Structure to design on (530 residues):
């Protein structure tokens, strides 16, 4: 991948910019080192990057013009620049036909529709920055790319204090045309084994947005804790949410708090995917309601890390009433189309019991208006074409389910599990799926990662972060970064353009931005941190 392309003449119509003339063959003037390196800092790598001459200067006079559906993204940019240039953030105005020179313009362009709602074009020229997209998500991603071209200091909150006489800030002239390879670009937080506060989850959402990730899967219930209020079954949280691995106090989200996470994520074009793991991984529920056990006896709360010992009583009708209450209440506060039912690591049921259970739950989820997702153990069951398999076990394949028309999320543990150690010295994390270096998490093709699963059946990539060994957001950040950025690129960027040697350099250039964000990322020796 070469970024140092010669300049083309770029022609902008009202909505879109196209490169009309062939690239000049004469050598272009040597850009300043800052501008030269700027195009190298983008993660995930866009589809098409073309450097041009000169730079745009942000000043205290810079204004942002945005067409109606894109004003939220315009405000995001204005908030990011904040008080860097004066007492007010840049003004956001409705787009006008002839915006003045020196402005940022965010417009709608239906020709981009063919590339999908997440596509955008970002053109930076000396007199204007233009972002065009067909849908708000595309405009948001255009703003995220522009963000990565701004000096990293903009991520530093203290910069948002009013300043005087700040010199103009240049961003390099460039044309970027971009859209994602896969529609599913996800991360998962296990808030059951160790609880994370609402602010910690929001922090993770912010970090996801910077890397154009669009699905946050929340693992909301497991043996060690139940984390989402169910109004018809209050003991699940008051009792079942009161502990976590190691015996800490646990915690839970009220439905209103969960809704605030959903909204915060939606504002960043991230869909929340709630998971209630069943029929196994259910000790917190079995402790809270004795009738969920076949013997009618409540189990003690559990704070260890073994798996596979718990199961709902699948032969009792009341178990399905319970599940329907849960799916109904969570579906009602989840605008996204998905409900994840877990389904992994069930050792207490026979295969026929397990399959009958999954099929009944699939009907409940469908009746409550959602698409069912399950871990890859659900592959042999009678799945609806709309159901989705999350492939995690490295030595298996969900190929047998392909004839059912289902789609697959690639979370192969040996590549995508963010809770594996980076190397033998990593102080937290597990090793059951191997050591997952940054290169290991980057250097694979999600389109061919499971035998017998064609690329057309791959929805995308998700990086689960199980929290048996994690206590707080500092630990989360240490295991997620840089590997979540590697997975974001595996999900967004065209496979043919992805080269580890090139990624290493762009990742190294994230040092200043991530440091300004206060991110506790792992300074892996595989990377030359700039
Ligand atoms: C397997 S992945 C699990 C989790 C553990 C994880 C630890 C999956 C569907 N089940 O219960 O937390 O390994 O890496």
């Amino acid at each position: 991948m070469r970024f140092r392309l010669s300049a083309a003449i770029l022609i902008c119509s009202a909505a879109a910019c196209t490169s009309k003339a062939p690239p000049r063959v004469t050598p272009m003037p040597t850009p300043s080192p800052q501008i030269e390196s700027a195009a190298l800092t983008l993660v995930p790598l866009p589809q098409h990057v073309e450097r041009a001459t000169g730079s745009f200067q942000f000043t205290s006079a810079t204004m942002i013009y945005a067409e109606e559906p894109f004003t939220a993204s315009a405000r995001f940019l204005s908030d990011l620049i904040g008080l860097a240039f004066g007492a007010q953030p840049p003004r956001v105005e409705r787009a006008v036909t002839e915006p003045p020179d020196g402005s940022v313009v965010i417009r709608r362009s239906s020709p981009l529709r063919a590339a999908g709602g997440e596509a955008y074009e970002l053109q930076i020229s000396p007199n204007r920055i233009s972002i065009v997209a067909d849908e708000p998500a595309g405009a948001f991603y255009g703003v995220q790319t522009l963000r990565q071209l701004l000096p990293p200091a903009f991520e530093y909150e203290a910069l948002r204090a009013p300043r005087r006489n700040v010199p103009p800030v240049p961003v390099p002239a460039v044309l970027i045309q971009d859209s994602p390879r896969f529609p599913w670009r996800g991360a998962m937080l296990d808030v059951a084994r160790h609880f994370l506060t609402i602010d910690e989850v929001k922090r993770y959402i912010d970090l996801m947005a910077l890397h154009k990730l669009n699905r946050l899967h929340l693992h909301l219930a497991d043996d060690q804790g139940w984390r989402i209020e169910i109004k018809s079954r209050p003991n699940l949280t008051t009792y079942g949410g009161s502990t976590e691995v190691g015996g800490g106090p646990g915690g839970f989200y009220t439905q209103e708090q969960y809704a605030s996470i959903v909204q915060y994520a939606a504002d960043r074009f991230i869909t929340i995917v709630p998971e209630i793991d069943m029929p196994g991984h259910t000790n917190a529920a079995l402790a809270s309601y004795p009738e969920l056990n076949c013997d009618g006896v409540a189990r003690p709360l559990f704070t260890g890390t073994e798996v596979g010992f718990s199961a709902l009583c699948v032969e009792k009708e009341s178990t399905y009433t319970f599940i329907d209450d849960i799916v109904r209440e969570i579906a009602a506060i989840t605008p996204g189309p998905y409900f994840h039912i877990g389904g992994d690591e069930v050792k207490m049921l026979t295969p026929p019991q397990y399959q009958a259970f999954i099929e009944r739950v699939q009907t409940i989820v469908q009746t409550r208006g959602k698409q069912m997702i399950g871990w890859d153990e659900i592959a042999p069951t009678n799945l609806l074409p709309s159901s989705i398999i999350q492939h995690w076990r490295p030595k298996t394949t969900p190929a047998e389910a392909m004839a059912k028309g289902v789609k697959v999320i690639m979370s192969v543990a040996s590549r995508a599990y963010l809770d594996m150690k980076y190397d033998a010295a990593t102080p937290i994390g597990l090793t059951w799926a191997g050591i997952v270096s940054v290169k290991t998490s980057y250097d694979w093709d999600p389109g061919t990662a499971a035998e017998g699963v064609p690329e057309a059946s791959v929805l995308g990539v998700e990086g689960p972060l199980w929290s048996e060994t994690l206590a707080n957001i500092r630990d989360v950040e240490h295991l997620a970064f840089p590997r979540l950025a590697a997975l974001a690129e595996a999900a967004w960027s065209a496979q043919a353009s992805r080269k580890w040697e090139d990624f290493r350099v762009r990742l190294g250039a994230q040092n200043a931005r991530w440091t300004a964000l206060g991110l506790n990322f792992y300074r892996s020796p595989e990377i030359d941190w700039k």
